Amino acid sequence: MVAINTNYDRKSEVKAFDDTKGVKGLVDAGITEVHRIFHHPPESDVHYPINNSGSDSEATQFSISVIDLQGLDRLDCPTKRKEIVAKVGEASETWGFFQIVNHGIPVDVLEEIKDGVRGFFEL
């Protein structure tokens, strides 16, 4: 079990990070270790609250919509396609992004994409 430091003021550290021009500012400053705001406990169910109310007592936790494409290619099940399209629409309108699972894209292709994106942002 990981102990969480109750004196840790993540909001202040995120603000300080933003003030340094983000990741580019950290790289330009010659950082040698991953900044604390990017450390996450190993428990997968830990969420950091997003305070959108201005009051710590009313902080809300959010999670990314996960959309499963399993069965989308089945021609004998048109309701499945409508269901998936509705989920994509809802996630897009509500949050603007979502995660897709069971899309059929091979892992090696995804790794090549990540390498390309990483290379772009390292320019």
From TrEMBL:
A GO MF term = oxidoreductase activity
Question: Is Iron among the key words of this record?
Answer: yes
UniProt keywords (A-Z) are: Iron, Metal-binding, Oxidoreductase
- Give a yes or no for keyword Metal-binding in this entry: yes
* SUPFAM superfamilies with a match to the protein in the record: Clavaminate synthase-like (SSF51197)
Alphabetical list of Pfam families matching this protein: DIOX_N
Extract the InterPro entries matched here.
Answer: DIOX_N (IPR026992), IPNS-like_sf (IPR027443)
Report domain Non-haem dioxygenase N-terminal positions.
64-123
Q: Which PANTHER family does the annotation name?
A: 1-AMINOCYCLOPROPANE-1-CARBOXYLATE OXIDASE HOMOLOG 1, OXIDOREDUCTASE, 2OG-FE II OXYGENASE FAMILY PROTEIN
Protein's name in the database:
Non-haem dioxygenase N-terminal domain-containing protein
Q: Which organism is it from?
A: Malus domestica (Apple)
